Amino acid sequence: MGAPSFHAPNADACRARGILDRIGDKWSLFVIAQLGDGTKRFTELKRDIDGISQRMLTVTLRGLERDGIVTRTMYPVMPPRVDYALTDMGRTLLDTVGTLVWWAEAHLAEIDAARASYDARAAQTDAVG
Amino acid sequence: MGAPSFHAPNADACRARGILDRIGDKWSLFVIAQLGDGTKRFTELKRDIDGISQRMLTVTLRGLERDGIVTRTMYPVMPPRVDYALTDMGRTLLDTVGTLVWWAEAHLAEIDAARASYDARAAQTDAVG
DNA sequence: CTGAATCCTCTGAGATACTG
DNA sequence: CAGTATCTCAGAGGATTCAG
């Protein structure tokens, strides 16, 4: 439990938002996860991340590169070749996100149950009311 | 740092997405952070979370309630009164998110530097190219 | 006080076609 | 192969208004 008590005023939530804006979008997490396996090329990423479009892969990679989370290496060869990899900071983020994944796994069933319960209550209220 | 090594294939990223869909939206994190201080009423939350609209506060609270992260307690009095609080699961999430905030604080400067550097390079490329 | 309903705008993101 | 450019659409979210 390295987590500080986090009696967060808005300020703390604000800092976290910056991070969530980065990894909370639709694709960043998948890209980071994929690069956790090691250096990959554009087409490899596109193939391995199911459903991502060229455009979104490009946009996502640009964002991550800008924030110093991935590196982009171009080889001036024909046909072109570009390698992507996590930076050191990117790897620490991978670790941090790991705790979130852990939490998700630990509470998936509980969340599903809560949703089912809530939906059932809502449906009943609808029918009765 | 209990974080497992997280050599995540897509499956792991997928599970985390569910969580990020919940806390990664524009307001959930602020609400959770505020409720970390203890039970609050609708109007208190609206006042304390700068810039949130009634609508988004309602929508956000409903989502969090549905997922079993906050509880909603109505008092049938006049004028109406509704209290919101974190559930036990909500408190564990607060803890988990704490590690993310910690990461954010630890790397804010590095990220800012990376952005500045990237933007500078981009501007230069633009000018020269 | 708490919230539902309506309207409106702006951005995220997919599909497609083109370039070095 | 690795992008960029353009079009388009759906959904998020704000402002405002109405109701219990």
From TrEMBL, chains A, B:
Pfam families: HxlR. PROSITE patterns: HTH_HXLR (PS51118). Transmembrane segments: none annotated. Residues 14-112 form the HTH hxlR-type domain. Keywords: DNA-binding, Transcription, Transcription regulation. PANTHER family: TRANSCRIPTIONAL REGULATOR, MARR FAMILY, TRANSCRIPTIONAL REGULATORY PROTEIN. This is Helix-turn-helix transcriptional regulator.
